[in-house]
Structures are given as structure tokens and as C-alpha cells.
Design a protein that fits this description.
Blueprint (H helix, E strand, L loop, with lengths): L9 E3 L2 E3 L9 E10 L2 E8 L4 E8 L7 H16 L8 E7 L2 E7 L6 H6 L9 H19 L15 E3 L5 E3 L5 H10 L11 H4 L16 H16 L10 H9 L18 H11 L10 H13 L3 H23 L10 H7 L73 H7 L28 H8 L1 H7 L2 H13 L5 H8 L4 H14 L2 H13 L10 H4 L23
Antiparallel strand pairs: 1-2, 3-4, 4-5, 5-7, 6-7, 8-9
Helix pairs in contact: 3-6, 3-9, 3-10, 6-8, 13-18, 14-17, 15-18, 16-17
């Protein structure tokens, strides 16, 4: 596979590297996923390998200098050599004069963060699988630390622990310090580095890094101990704290996640040993933290207590939960509602590549990959708001001629063959930007309903808005966003509008603004997360939420892709 990636090696000026070069023209069907620690992340197909890959593009507003490019190539080359079962595989790079992309394997089950905290999708997570995940993380990091020279991750968190089709661990974003550094220093805008969830996993000695102190393998051990607690408790560390500075202050004073029975139940296998291991791992003195080799020696007997059937059953239970969620969502929304085969094919007609065409030359402009999601072409996004070709001549502001609906993800899921186009169009009547007869214009209001037409949960949000703004925690906000994205209820642009706000209250206000524009299902998810996160100051909750039998409406769209979205504090 690698030999076909490129002929020869990278050679730009006096710069030479043995890394495989993957021409960007061979990366097709791009699908925007998220913005990662050092740029924009896409899902794509390699046209020759016929396989799905992930593309991580370093976002720069100026060309990369030769010295910087050399540093990037050296780091990427080290990553390429880190071949191990539990390390994500680096296929190569796209090496263009004005941008860098690193091409890796794509993980279909997203991140460990999604598995742990999307409890509607994964209500049960068996102990054998949890212990296997912890064991495989330790195996992967131990391998990195035993390379010559040792490769330090220093950004270990649940968002960077990816899961393959059978929920085996793949560690990602390791050793990319220079990529992250350049992305921050050269990235467009003056926005400071987003601490996101990173401060939760950062050891206290890194709060005020000393230039004289060398990088240490014990940094990763502290992060791993926090991850252990998160996996065993299925809770977000310090979720009640709304300010990263408060977390840092508390950790410096000795505060750590709660290890009582309230957080770590008594039925955890080898509970005392695991607690001892994690408390040693997050101790304030780096020298007192154990090595990953010691962790493996402790974890191996725990994992061996389970046989292959135990792990298979745990994975099967997760897959069944995922299928039940999707089938429940799809029951009122057949696959045919996505788009007719003919319409889908017309979208890509005459496109030789998904990369945008340059206006003057007709050639592909790879720099457009590096735009923020708000500037991304519609072909990159999970949905499209462009009217069909037959409607292009309609008046620009004549929005009353269309019926408002939540946009659907229709680029990544193949349509079920054999259903007539007419049947698709019939099902799409209420779900697409479809022109309505003039006499019905008064009966097709936009999504922003007047207050009397709101459901009970939307009305509850409207009346308690300021209380929600003041009390909703960062953890609850992030869980709400994750749940809405997982069900394709939140447009990517709306997500970016929320997370790019400068303060927590501004983010919550932006999210609540979206509640007014969306359905009762959308509002139900937000209020359900408030209830599940024990925001008791907002009681009483609507009866529909307080009822233990309340379930999400089956009208929610199915999860159609894996997200790897960084948590923003």
C-alpha cells in the first residue's frame, strides 16, 4: 500500500524525507468531521486503495518555511515508524507548498469520549470491554515510551483514543507537538489556544512549565490515571467546575476525581487494585508515578480473568444498542427519505475530485480545505442547503416558497436501491427545501414558531432561559452538543457558532437560540442532559423529562458518521 502512495520520496528544495507522499487528487469524497488540535479533520476515500482514510490538515495562513517544513516532516516520519496494533497507522502526507496534510486510517467507531458519555447510544458498557480498553491504551503508550528515542504523547485524553470496528484501541495525535505549535502560531485569527478538555488531563507540573525541566514520560501517566477514572465511572472529571482555571487551582491544592462508591461502584472487577493504580498515577510528584510497564503487569491478570466470549458479548451488546438506536430513529424515516439515487448522482456529476475548483484555471485548490467550517463548501459538509437545480432561478429572498426542515446527512450513506424515485420524492415532501403551491404559502411557516405553537419542553426552556444560562455547566453543554451532533439534529455551522463563543454563558445562550429554531426533539435532548447532570436548581423539570419512561422521539435522524470533536471548556 505504501509503495503505491508515491514514487520516490518527499523532495522540496534541499529537503528530503522517506515519507510516502499521497497526491491530494487521489483523495475523493471528502467529508468534514471536525477541527482538531492542529487543523481541520476530514474523512475521505483513496481512489486507488479503495479504502476510507482520515485527513488532518495543518491550517496555515502563510506558506511553511523550509525549516518548519523540515521539523514537520521529521515528526511525521517518526509517527510513520510507530507501527503497533494499538497505534493509529500513518499512511503518508500530502506535501504541498502552502499546506500539510497527514493521512491516517479512519476509525469507524469514533472516540472513547463518545463511547463513554453518549449514554443514550451506549447505555451498557460491560466491565470486560472497559478493562480491555484500559489495557490496550497502556500497551500503546508503553510502546511509544520504549521507542528509541522515546516518543512522548503529552496530549493523552479520551478524545484522542479512537476505536476501530471491533472497539479495539487506536491511539492518535501522538508526538505532534510541532504540528500543534505551528497551527497555533500560524493559524488565522487571534483566538488563544483552546484548553478544551486538555487541562483535565494535564499534570500540575505542566501548569507552569520550567524551561530547565526536560519532557518526562510521567506526564502521560498522569493523563492515563485520569482516563482510568473516566472509563470506570463514565463521568467527566471535574464536570461541576465551569472554569479551567478553577480546575488548575483545585488540582494544585490536591483535589482529584472522587474514588468513593458514589463514583466507582463496588462491582468493578479488582476495584481496589485499580484505585491504587490510578491514585499513584495522578500523584503530584512525577517521580512517584508508576511506569506503564508496571501498569501492564497489574492489568494483565485482570484482563486474563475474562475469555474471548466475554469480550465478544460486550462488543455485541454495544453494536446491538447502536442498531436499536438507529432502527428506532429510522422507523419514522425510511432510508429513501435521504435523496433519490438520481439526485445523489447528479450532485457529483462532472466532478473529477471533491476538492473545490479554482475559478480561473479549473484546477483543484487544496487551500480551500483549510477554511473554517463556516466557510467550507457545501459538498464538504454533512448536509446541503442548496436548492435543486430547477429552483436556481427563484427569487433570492423568497423563502416562503420552501418548507423548512432539519437538513439531513445525505453524502455518506448509500441509498437503498430499488425504491422508485417518485416514492422518494413523496417521502421528501416534509423534509426538504421543496417548493410549495402558492395557495399553501400561508400554511408553511419557518422553523421559528411563535410561542403559542411551541411544545411544552420548548416553552419550559423559554421561560427558564436565564436560569439555564447561569446554571448549565460546561460538561452538560458539551454532552448536549455531542448528543445533538450524533443524531444529526445540529448543523455543523450552528455547532461552530456555539463552541466559538468566548465564554460559557455565551455558548449556552447560542445553544438556546438554536432550541427556538428546532423541534421539540431538539429541546428534549438539551433538557434531558440538564436533568441527567443533576442541575437541581432548575427544578421542577417538565413532566415529559421527569418521567423515567421518557424516551427520545423516533423522529430523530440516525447517527450517520463518527465524530471526533474536541471538548471545549
Amino acid at each position: 500500500m505504501e509503495q503505491s502512495a508515491a514514487v520516490g520520496c518527499v523532495n522540496i528544495g534541499s529537503l528530503t524525507s522517506t515519507l510516502p507522499v499521497i497526491p491530494y487528487q487521489k483523495l475523493t469524497d471528502l467529508y468534514y468531521l471536525s477541527r482538531g488540535g492542529f487543523g481541520t479533520v476530514f474523512k475521505a476515500q483513496h481512489s486507488e486503495w479503495r479504502t476510507t482514510v482520515a485527513i488532518k490538515c495543518l491550517k496555515l495562513d502563510s506558506p511553511v518555511g523550509e525549516r518548519e517544513r523540515n521539523c514537520l516532516l521529521k515528526e511525521a516520519e517518526v509517527l510513520h515508524k510507530a507501527r503497533f496494533n494499538y497505534i493509529i497507522q500513518i499512511f503518508g502526507i500530502c506535501n504541498e507548498p502552502e499546506f500539510f496534510c497527514i493521512v491516517t486510517e479512519f476509525m469507524s467507531n469514533g472516540s472513547l469520549d463518545l463511547l463513554l458519555h453518549e449514554k443514550d447510544m451506549y447505555p451498557v458498557l460491560a466491565w470486560p470491554l472497559r478493562l480491555r480498553i484500559l489495557y490496550e491504551i497502556a500497551l500503546g503508550v508503553n510502546f511509544l515510551h520504549n521507542m528509541n528515542p522515546p516518543l512522548l504523547h503529552h496530549d493523552l485524553k479520551t478524545q484522542n483514543i479512537l476505536l476501530d470496528g471491533e472497539f479495539h484501541v487506536k491511539i492518535a495525535d501522538f508526538g505532534l507537538s510541532k504540528w500543534r505549535q505551528l497551527s497555533v502560531s500560524k493559524g488565522s485569527g487571534s483566538k488563544p489556544t483552546e484548553m478544551g478538555g486538555t487541562v483535565i488531563y494535564m499534570p500540575p507540573e505542566e501548569y507552569e512549565p520550567s524551561k530547565s525541566r526536560r519532557a518526562d514520560v510521567k506526564h502521560d501517566m498522569y493523563s492515563y490515571a485520569i482516563i482510568m477514572w473516566e472509563v470506570l465511572s463514565r463521568q467527566i472529571p471535574f464536570e461541576d467546575v465551569t472554569n479551567p482555571m478553577q480546575i488548575m487551582f483545585s488540582v494544585l491544592r490536591g483535589m482529584r476525581p472522587d474514588t468513593s462508591l458514589g463514583s466507582l461502584p463496588a462491582n468493578i472487577p479488582s476495584r481496589e487494585t485499580l484505585i491504587s493504580l490510578m491514585t499513584c498515577g495522578w500523584t503530584a510528584n512525577p517521580d512517584e508515578r508508576p511506569s506503564f510497564l508496571k501498569c501492564l503487569i497489574e492489568l494483565e491478570p485482570m484482563v486474563r480473568k475474562f475469555d474471548e466470549i466475554d469480550f465478544l458479548e460486550a462488543v455485541l451488546e454495544i453494536k446491538k444498542s447502536k442498531l436499536r438506536q438507529r432502527s428506532g430513529c429510522c422507523s419514522a424515516q425510511p432510508v429513501g427519505e435521504k435523496r433519490s439515487d438520481e439526485e445523489s448522482l447528479n450532485m457529483f456529476k462532472d466532478r473529477h475530485s471533491p476538492w473545490p475548483l479554482h475559478l480561473t484555471t479549473g484546477y483543484i485548490s487544496p487551500l480551500l480545505l483549510l477554511f473554517d467550517s463556516g466557510d467550507l463548501p457545501s459538498s464538504f459538509l454533512a448536509h446541503t442547503l442548496e436548492p435543486p437545480e430547477s429552483l436556481k432561478d427563484c427569487a433570492v429572498n423568497n423563502l416562503n416558497g420552501y418548507q423548512s426542515a432539519r437538513p439531513l446527512n445525505d453524502l455518506n450513506i448509500p441509498l437503498k436501491p430499488g425504491v422508485p424515485v417518485a416514492e422518494y420524492e413523496t417521502r421528501l415532501d416534509n423534509l426538504t427545501l421543496k417548493p410549495q403551491p402558492q395557495q399553501q404559502a400561508d400554511y408553511s411557516p419557518p422553523l421559528r414558531h411563535s410561542p403559542p405553537s411551541q411544545g411544552p419542553i420548548a416553552q419550559w426552556i423559554a421561560t427558564r432561559r436565564e436560569e439555564i444560562v447561569s446554571q448549565m455547566t460546561e460538561a452538560c453543554l458539551n454532552q448536549s452538543l455531542d448528543a445533538l451532533l450524533a443524531r444529526s439534529m445540529l448543523m455543523r455551522e450552528d455547532y461552530e457558532l456555539v463552541v466559538n463563543q468566548s465564554t460559557r454563558t455565551a455558548k449556552v445562550r447560542q445553544l438556546l437560540d438554536n432550541c427556538h429554531k428546532h423541534s421539540e426533539d431538539f429541546c428534549c435532548i438539551v433538557v434531558r442532559k440538564l436533568h441527567d447532570n443533576k442541575q437541581m436548581g432548575l427544578q421542577p423539570y417538565p413532566a415529559e423529562i421527569s418521567s423515567p419512561t421518557t424516551a427520545l422521539s423516533p423522529s430523530a435522524p440516525p447517527l450517520s458518521m463518527s465524530y471526533n470533536i474536541p471538548r471545549n471548556m
